[in-house]
Write a structure and sequence with these properties.
Radius of gyration: 31 Å
Shape: elongated
Largest sheet: 5 strands, antiparallel
Length: 796
Amino acid sequence: TTTTAMATTTTTAMAMAIKHGHGRRVTASGGAHGVRAVRARGVVRAPRTRTGAVSEPRTSETTSSSRGSGGASNMNEMRKQMADVRKQMEEDEDLGILMAGLRGTNIDDSDFAADGVTMKVVDVEKLENNKFGDALPLYYDPELIAQYWERRPAAVAQRMFQLSTIGGSFITGLISDFVTKSVDKNAVKRAIQLREIVTSLGPAYIKLGQALSIRPDILSPAAMNELQKLCDKVPSFDNGLAFATLEAELGCKWQEVYSELGPEPVAAASLGQVYKGKLKDTGEVVAVKVQRPAVLETVSVDLFVLRKIGVFLKRFPAITTDVVGLLDEWAARFFEELDYNREGENQTKFAESIKVDLPQVVVPKTYAKYTRRKVITSEWLEGEKLSQSNEDDVGDLVNIGVICYLKQLLDTGFFHADPHPGNLIRTPDGRLAILDFGLMTDIDDNIKYGMIEAISHLIHRDYEAIVKDFVTLDFIPEGTDLKPILPVLGRVFDTALEGGGAKNINFQELAADLAQITFDYPFRIPPYFALIIRAIGVLEGIALVGNPDFALVDEAYPYIAKRLLTDDSPRLREALRYMVYGKNKVFDADRMIDLLEALETFRQASQMSMGDPNMPAASPRLALASATAPATAASENATREALQFVLSPDGAFFREFLLDEVVKGIDALSRDNAIRVLTQFGLQDARVPLFFPGLPSMINLSPSMTKDDKETLASTTKLLNFLLRGKRSDNLGDLNANDFTNFASGTSRANQQKAFNEISPFLPAVATQIVPELASRLSSRLAARAIRDVFGAVPA
């Protein structure tokens, strides 16, 4: 994810790993807001420094002088530190297992089930004689589901017999673990048992197992590892049943819609199976997914049984997990997956949300005319799984995938919630295809903006604000006393972000501190964040196979910079101001240049080729797009992208944001030049008389330069050197008058003409809007300074 997601993932991973690694019993309560880990027993001591005193976090004031050599080094150091931390974490057994789990390394994405696997479902024939005249709800309503199955005790008994014969030994072992207080000790053993039997129990248990496999706050790393080996592929069901369902849903013979279909499925999963076909009216090749018979009945009766068990478990004080609340939260989302109409709508909505900014990402077209609740007809895409591709552009596609998921997370808020290697495809024309939109999640603006705000707070090490960000992002419930958490969290981040790399980090101490937070305070992983970790983790895992030096921050930061510099929402504008000025409200040119460089990187990445038009496309629809796509990347600009952005309409807020700094810089620059000229003529100490009553008789001819003036001059010079000369330098000697007219990347007349052509569309706005406002503010500042110099007053 973003820097915040990476930092939170890393710290949470360490906390959860040591929590389970120490074999401590952790109770949990949850529901709509996720799971809350609390201390069950024993005493957790406050973290102490080597001298024995409780450590205090650094503040932005204490760290402002220790930022290294500037913003560039900040980003480089962050990249190196994260790579070092990742490497050392992977060398630790528990942490390595957990990181592999978060990346989905062990996910089984086979197309079919292993030999010998069977699946038990409800006998629908016993339910067809419906003497009660009722039906199961098509949405999750536990009360209506309970009413339906309480009238059918025979069917429930049949299902319970299936469950007991398949999972009896597992349930018995689990009860024994609770009684003997050995849940953590036997977690891996039980996970292996669960993985071996869960496929036979049907779709509800398969999906539940997969949902738990990305929750380090519920399962140990080793248990996560085992559950991720769970395969969602089961034996295909009878083609006759599939075609009967298809015809019943479409209301006609399948031959009236498809000229070709099957005859055998190309893949089979717990909820349905997929056939390759061809539409009769257009000849387009399509993928037709048909829902498995009795899925709704099997899922609902399983949820009915599990909910009964959850209610029963409430009688035991030792079991504090809110099983019913967690089950209801998960089941509501699961029911959404059963509606293929909804999946088709999700697919179309997602494609629409990214088509402008991400034409390199392919989403199958949905044929709504031939889509029903139990049937979905989508565009057939050729390609290979990204995780299995050996093509040279896999790294580029991973980068595009990161941008795509960041856009979902921080922009559209419509998040693909089932990211695993099987759903990420490389098409023949070198684009990234994303499949399976049955499970989506909505991320509200508060979370989206909170993520970006947290990044700026983390960069400035403003730990008081970061703790509040955890509340905003739903890691800590509102109303929690945050003061006791601050010292622990501050020590953790100070240690992790300190210079010197991972070799100076004591992971056991860090993890112990984090474990204290999870034990002592209601710290939890929100369900949406578990999905974010999985999405970004899967992409990172694929990238690391081909590029061990892959750094997520390199791909994430440019997109974040683009949002900060171009979004007009008040919260992001304030986040940009904080990013550049910090808590002390001091302008930091290096961080501003960091943002502008990252914006340039994003714009260059967004111009990446949409695929080689000479290669076969994933579908005829895409072939047309490929044929019209540019074969080569856009030619290099003669001027910096950053300079064009500053002058462009997109940079309007940014210009307003910087106008006061520009005025200060021009003032400081003019004063500095005046001092230089007077010094050359030996007049630096000269004084001139004033002949006005009530005014000082003599004043200095040479203007004064305060410490703030010198810092402003250095910042302005550095920014100008970057925009005009492409270098980071606060040396005024690096600038000359020609730089303000010959701001091209070369000295040739053709290059200068090209540079002028690039910025000429922006010049009218500069002349009519920027220059007058700049002149007005500058004159006001100069007047205020003149009054101060003459009267000794403090300027406004």
